Amino acid sequence: MAYVDTFVIPVPEAGMDAYRKQAKLGAKVWMEHGALQYIEAAADDVPEGKTTDFYRAVKRKEGETVVVGIALYKNRKHRDEVMKKVMADKRLANGMEGVDGKRMFWGGFKPLVEAAVKEPAAGK
Predict the structure, then answer these.
(1) For residues 30 and 86, is the Cβ–Cβ distance under 8 A?
(2) 14-38: pLDDT as tens digits
(3) CA 80 to CA 85: how far, in whole Å?
(4) Residue 102 gets which letter from DSSP?
(5) Where is 73: in which H helix or E strand?
(6) How many CB atoms lie within 10 A of CB 10?
(7) Pure H helices in the chain
(8) What are the backbone dihedrals phi and psi of residue 12, each rounded to the nearest 5 degrees, phi first?
(9) Which helix (H) or strand (E) holds 74?
(10) pLDDT reading at 116 higher than 90
(11) How is residue 105 annotated by DSSP?
(12) Which of 7, 24, 60, 84 is geometrically suited to a Cys-Cys bond with 55, CB 3.0 to 4.6 A?
């Protein structure tokens, strides 16, 4: 069964172009070191809740949005191997310029259910 890393981080809306460049580098690094898939997505249809929501979770400030990231691995062992390489990669040494990493949260998750679209057979 797969293993999933995810993170949620506030990003200044005015700095989204710079953040996108950093995210592209992150995707390249994760994939080069063995991740099966890497996605970062910016809030688009994210309602503000009455009790809790993504914005409260990162203590969003005026002019910020929320970005969610997901990396997929074969299993926990594979994730640990990939993350060891990622954390040692010098290309990520400069961190995330303009982003308050103290309000970021992350974790690794064991899937409860897995489903995927299967590619149709050739010629069908």
Answers:
(1) yes
(2) 999 999 999 999 999 999 999 999 9
(3) 9
(4) G
(5) strand 64-73
(6) 24
(7) 16-32, 54-57, 76-88
(8) -60, 130
(9) none
(10) no
(11) E
(12) 60
Which tens digits make up the pLDDT trace of 47-102? Answer: 999 999 999 999 999 999 999 999 999 999 999 999 999 999 999 887 777 788 89
CA angle 99, 53, 46 (to 5 degrees): 80
The single-letter code of the amino acid at 38 is Y
- Which of 14, 24, 66, 20 minimizes the C-alpha distance to 43? 66
**Tokens 């950093």 map to which residue?**
22
Largest CA distance in the chain: 52
Angle at 86 between CA 6 and CA 77, to 5 degrees: 70
Fold classified for 3-109: Alpha-Beta Plaits (3.30.70)
Q: What is the pLDDT of residue 123?
A: 64
